[in-house]
Structure formats: structure tokens, C-alpha cells
Amino acid sequence: MKSKRTTISIISILVLALIAGIAYSALKVNKADESDSEKYESWKVYRNEKYGFEVKYPYGSHRQTMKDSTMIDIGDGAYGFHIWVNENPLKLSAKEHVEKLIQNYEEAKNRDDYIPPPLTIFKRGEILISRTQAYYIDVWAADRTERRVYMSRGDKIYFIAFPTAESPNDPKAEDHFKIHQLILFSFRFTE
What we know:
Blueprint: H1 2-41, E1 44-48, E2 53-57, E3 62-65, E4 71-75, E5 81-87, H2 94-109, E6 119-129, E7 132-141, E8 144-153, E9 156-163, H3 173-186, E10 188-189
Antiparallel strand pairs: 1-2, 2-10, 3-4, 4-5, 5-9, 6-7, 7-8, 8-9
């Protein structure tokens, strides 16, 4: 009888410890969300009604859009964060779109009359942005490494590019990459 009580007591203590651990983790996640929102408080919001998205970016960053352009540039020139919106008449998924780009690039490399720009893909994968499945590739392009993120929405492909932390020509590459990641994950569709 005493052994049964001891077993029940131990199980009860373990269950309470598990519940306390889950509650602590939930509080920790909420605190992380609050600190992320605090980071964005002083940021500006770029909203594009034509293409149905918005993105936050640090106060003081340069933002440039050309009239009727599908390209938005946020940041400081070569180390900036770029967004393009392209047509997607076949309504390919982001992953299908990237696979098609890679296939076209590989085919072009084999033509005698074509000199492709140097491009090496060294990492690829899927990520979730604005509740949308996105596909990214990390590439070595000319003189820097770059993350290229693709999202498919309706008949549009949203293409986001920014230098990664390994860019050799940017003395603040790691800092820029952290900011670019925050910008990327602030991206959301508005419609």
C-alpha cells in the first residue's frame, strides 16, 4: 500500500513538473514575441497596395521605388534588401519556380553563345513567411553571397534578395544579415 502511494506521489510530482515546464516555455515564447514587436516599434512600414504586401524596415534606411516598377530597394545600396514582383502565369509554387529557374540556368550554361553570370547555389530550403510557404536559395553571385527568397501568390512571384552574413565585401555583413532577417520576417500580405 505504501509503495503504491509513493508511486502515485512520484507520478503526480512528475506531471506537475511537466505542466510547470510547459507553462514556463509558453511564457518565454510570449516574451520573445514582445521583444520582437519592440524591435519593430521604431521601424517604418512600406505598404504596396498594387501588389498587396507590406514590410517593416529600420528608421533611417533608404527606400527607393521606381514609378510603375516591380522592384523595391530598402537599405544602403549594394548591401540592401530588394523585393521584386514578377508575373507567374503558370501559377507555379515557389519551389517549382526556383527549380524552373535553375533548369533554365543549367540549359543556358551549355549553349556555346551564352556566358552565364557566375552563380553557385550552395544551400536551399523551405521557410514559412506571412503564413506562406516560401523557398530560398543561398547563392554565390559574382562577389558576394546572397539569400534569394521566393513566394508564390496567385499569378505573382515575390522575389526577395539580400546579402548573407558571409559576404566578404561588407565589413558589417553579420549585422546587415540580422537586420535583413528581421525585415524578411516582417513581410506580410495585406489582402
